[in-house]
Amino acid sequence: MNNQAVYYSVGPLLYCPADKKSIASSIRSQRFGTGYSLALCLEDTINDNFVEEAENQLISSINEIYDALQNTDFYLPKIFIRVRRPEQIRRLSTLFGGSNEIITGYIIPKFTTDNADRYLEQIAFLNGGAGTVKYVMPIYESSAIVDLRVRYDVLYSLKEKLTSLESYVLNIRVGGNDLSHLFGFRREPDESIHQITPIANIFADIVTVYGTDFVISGPVWEYYAGERWESGLRKEIKDDKLCGFIGKTVIHPNQIKIVNDEYKVSKKNYEDALNILSWNTNENSYVSGSNSGERMNEYKTHLNWARRTHFMAEHFGII
């Protein structure tokens, strides 16, 4: 589902361990600024022996944020919970109580054919009533999609499973670091993950299978200080955009503004998009020069690009 603005609105997704005690105060004080979404993680960032404690802290944080909203005006990001087991979804949704209203959705780690049905049953259950919509964002990061002998079967099988809940799939996400880990890869701050051919090939297959129907978000960038980290992030985002990704997973507030800046739409692209979207389809010609006189605009060829560009401008703005 990629034909509504909401699917382009996740932007920079800031990851944070769910057991972080300061998260509620950071949100209330707008310590991270604005223009981002938040992922509270119960999976890889939490020691297996302390999951219950992390859940309790998560519930406390969500309740604190919700209560503060009743009396104070501050930026509330889209909030997603990255779970580690399917049954956590329904249970946490119940434990949040009235605070569940501020949960945007759930992130499914290591989404595979082995766990997809159980996770999607939970999402279907949450959306079976009259409450607020709860979205899902599956992450493609498991070894199953590395094996070339089964990759296409796995990707298409998972897409078929998502079809029944397509309107609730906010983004498809890719686990760049998890996939790199399988090979022992790690990029330097002046290198783009799209230069790593095995990983880039996996990304290309994901975009090929899902890109016509879903918005796919770019992989995490792990550098946030030191030399070349900012220019490296900007370079990788340019590669992300060219390869079909929108938005990015981030792990530090320093990265948020850069992601938002790089996804702003140029005035030239925005004007061309508007011209294409407002094309008089009764005209004889479906091709015309752009406003700048630099390139050709063709209604039938560039319509999907124009829609995508318009949604991105709506969320990220115009430069």
Offer a few descriptive terms.
TIM Barrel, 14% strand, alpha/beta, 2 domains, 10 strands, 8-stranded parallel beta barrel
Give a written overview of the molecule:
The structure is a single chain. Helix 5 packs parallel to helix 7 (about 195-210) and helix 10 packs across helix 11. The radius of gyration is 20 Å and the shape is globular. The model has no long low-confidence stretch (mean pLDDT about 95). Helix content is about 40%, strand content about 15%. The protein has helices at about 25-30, 50-70, 85-95, 115-125, 150-165, 175-185, 195-210, 230-245, 255-260, 265-275, 300-315, and strands spanning about 10-15, 35-40, 80, 105-110, 135-140, 170-175, 215-220, 250, 285-290, 295-300. Helix 3 links the parallel strand 3 (about 80) and strand 4 (about 105-110). The protein is α/β, with parallel strands linked by helices and about 325 residues long. The chain has two domains: about 5-265, TIM Barrel (Alpha-Beta Barrel); about 270-315, no CATH class. It contains eleven helices and ten strands. The strands form two sheets. The protein has an eight-stranded parallel β-barrel, surrounded by five helices. A two-stranded antiparallel sheet has the order 9-10.
